[in-house]
């Protein structure tokens, strides 16, 4: 019957059928595989597998929605432009559960709660890092760093930022002044009533770990050397419930901030036992695993340690751009594996939640990975901004970028 039907078509009917088929094909080809709600874009598996343009390219320092379409394809270019107007990008339906929505058509809000003042004239950019919540103070603390222009050094400003959450519906962000002041702090972690900062140090003040009372803001240096060697540029810190303290130490002081003595130690990850005073390197350049390690996060059960690797620069195509996962042992870490390799910049701050997800602060937003390292979605910050670090306060995730502070309510908590 099918063959007979085809043989009975007239030339006019056949031409019409071909025209209709071409129209259907053009509609199909025009479908880029992105579905848009008001706040959420859903990326299909087909889009991930085959980019819907004949020729394209993308710089390592840009986001995927800034991919250059090198042939005329107005449909994909239009959809990439539309991503500028959403706050969330979903790659897997499990991301909806985290956001607490039914699907991409549901509304979801990412709030900008503070806009930072402009960077100083001598800086190429400013970075906000070390985001930590102290329950006694009902406040989030975080640092600001100024990446200097050539010929300048980073300034050791006497203040850090605080977001006061005593009225969580109306958070207030102000500068506060630790005493003695911190010297270019980066990462921070809350432990047993204190905020511990990993501070970079400078030419005259060795870097290390500083403990701060979140109420009085009084500070005390608690770790600053490896048997007489100065650390290079301590960057981030986490502490287990038993007091095992891990911190990263890279070459940022000499390579980026021009404010430290030449490095005399291999950069890497250090474990400091607060009970015994023992200090030892447990991973790093000495084993050729890291170059400029950066962010740290413990799993909720403290049996996994996540470490981010930057590489020489964040826009180096051959750079680190990696989150590694280790098993935590009674004396250190073991069994390194690549947990995730990101597509934009590098993962700076990293956090985990009670359900095993991992959050990496990258160019354009926060990448969210499930427990297997699969990217399930992105929390997108304002266009042109870069997420640097974040912290959970209950089921609110607070994010600090270069330009703004944000928050979003999620269907999870840190512990």
From TrEMBL:
Signal peptide: 1-30
Source organism of the structure: Venustampulla echinocandica
A Pfam family recorded for this sequence: SGL
Keyword Signal: yes
Name of the protein in its database record: SMP-30/Gluconolactonase/LRE-like region domain-containing protein
Residues annotated as transmembrane: none
Keywords: Signal
InterPro entries per the UniProt record, alphabetical: 6-blade_b-propeller_TolB-like, Oryzine_lactonohydrolase, SGL
SUPFAM superfamilies per the UniProt record, alphabetical: Calcium-dependent phosphotriesterase
Keyword Signal in annotation: yes
Sequence ranges assigned to domain SMP-30/Gluconolactonase/LRE-like region in this UniProt record: 177-396
């Amino acid at each position: 019957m099918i063959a007979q039907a085809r043989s009975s078509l007239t030339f006019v009917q056949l031409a019409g059928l071909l025209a209709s088929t071409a129209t259907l094909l053009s509609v199909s080809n025009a479908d880029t595989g992105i579905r848009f709600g008001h706040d959420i874009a859903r990326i299909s598996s087909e889009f991930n597998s085959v980019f819907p343009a004949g020729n394209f390219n993308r710089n390592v320092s840009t986001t995927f929605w800034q991919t250059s379409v090198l042939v005329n394809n107005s449909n994909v270019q239009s959809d990439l432009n539309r991503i500028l107007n959403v706050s969330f990008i979903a790659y897997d339906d499990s991301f909806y559960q985290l956001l607490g929505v039914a699907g991409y058509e549901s509304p979801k809000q990412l709030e900008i709660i503070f806009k930072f003042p402009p960077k100083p004239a001598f800086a190429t950019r400013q970075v906000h890092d070390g985001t930590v919540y102290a329950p006694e103070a009902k406040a989030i603390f975080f640092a600001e760093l100024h990446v200097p222009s050539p010929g300048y050094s980073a300034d050791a400003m006497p203040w850090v930022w605080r977001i006061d959450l005593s009225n969580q519906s109306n958070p207030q962000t102000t500068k506060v002044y630790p005493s003695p002041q911190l010297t270019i702090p980066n990462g921070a972690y809350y432990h047993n009533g204190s905020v511990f900062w990993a501070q970079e140090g400078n030419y005259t003040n060795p870097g290390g770990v500083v403990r701060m009372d979140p109420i009085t803001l009084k500070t005390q240096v608690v770790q600053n050397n490896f048997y007489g060697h100065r650390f290079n540029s301590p960057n981030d810190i986490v502490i287990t419930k038993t007091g095992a303290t891990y911190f990263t130490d890279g070459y940022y002081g000499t390579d980026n901030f021009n404010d430290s003595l030449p490095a005399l130690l291999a950069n890497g990850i250090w474990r400091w036992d607060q009970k015994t005073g023992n200090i030892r390197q447990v991973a790093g350049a000495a084993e050729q695993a890291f170059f400029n390690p950066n962010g740290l996060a413990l799993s909720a059960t403290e049996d996994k340690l996540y470490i981010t690797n930057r590489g020489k620069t964040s826009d180096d195509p051959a750079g680190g751009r990696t989150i590694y996962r280790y098993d935590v042992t009674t004396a250190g870490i073991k069994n390194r594996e690549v947990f995730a390799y990101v597509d934009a910049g590098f993962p700076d701050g990293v956090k985990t939640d009670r359900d095993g997800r991992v959050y990496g602060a990258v160019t354009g937003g926060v990448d969210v990975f499930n427990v297997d390292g699969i990217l399930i979605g992105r929390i997108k910050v304002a266009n042109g901004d870069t997420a640097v670090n974040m912290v959970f306060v209950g089921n609110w995730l607070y994010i600090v970028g270069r330009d703004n502070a944000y928050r979003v309510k999620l269907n999870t908590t840190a512990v």
